[in-house]
Amino acid sequence: MGLLITAMMLAGAAQPFTAPERLAAARAAGFKVSGSRIVNECDVTAEQINFEREDLNGDGAPEIIVSDGGACYGNGGSMFVVLTRNRQGALAPVLSAQGMAVVRPTKHLGWKDIEIGGPGMGRMPVARWNGSKYVY
Fold first, then answer.
1. Would 21 be classed as within a structural domain?
2. Is the pLDDT of residue 13 over 80?
3. Non-local CB neighbours of 66 within 8 Å, separated by 6+ positions
């Protein structure tokens, strides 16, 4: 994730999220929200949750990558969800995976590819845009 954060900062995309933005993104990514508490799928507080902005399609409106880590996510220890705005302006998931999001410079249909990183030395899957969502 460090490379993603560094690349975003260099691109000027790393602006802080407000509390309401964090809660809305967490909800859209499938987390439970109770007050200001964000709860993961194991029904525990998502203490390692992270929110990043990345303009994946070059339209100037960055998508949001929500990631979380911990024992809840098995051997890989992490998961992420990519959110974009739908036609109604609401945040909607276009990719959800176990592992770490690594945004690649290659593109399909105008959207950057996303490598799904994780433990091990094997070849990692790459999610590509199909016109409405990422598939791998």
1. no
2. no
3. 25, 26, 28, 29, 31, 49, 50, 51, 80, 81, 83
Give the span between the Cα atoms of 117 and 114, in whole angstroms.
Answer: 9
Residue 15 domain-assigned (yes or no): no
Please report the pLDDT score of residue 123 as a whole number: 86
Give the range of the structural domain holding residue 115, as residue numbers without chain letter.
Answer: 48-135
How far is the C-alpha of 40 from the C-alpha of 49, rounded, in Å? Answer: 9
Assigned domain for 38 exists: no
Mean pLDDT of 112-131: 91
Query: Per-residue pLDDT tens for 16-62?
Result: 999 999 999 999 999 999 999 999 999 999 999 999 999 999 999 99
Q: How do strand 111-117 and strand 50-54 relate by DSSP bridges?
A: unpaired
Instruction: Note the pLDDT of residue 40.
Output: 97
DSSP 55: -
**Domain count of the fold of the chain:** 1
The pair phi, psi for residue 62, each rounded to 5°, is -65, 145
CA distance linking residue 46 with residue 56, whole number of Å: 25
Residue 39: inside a domain: no
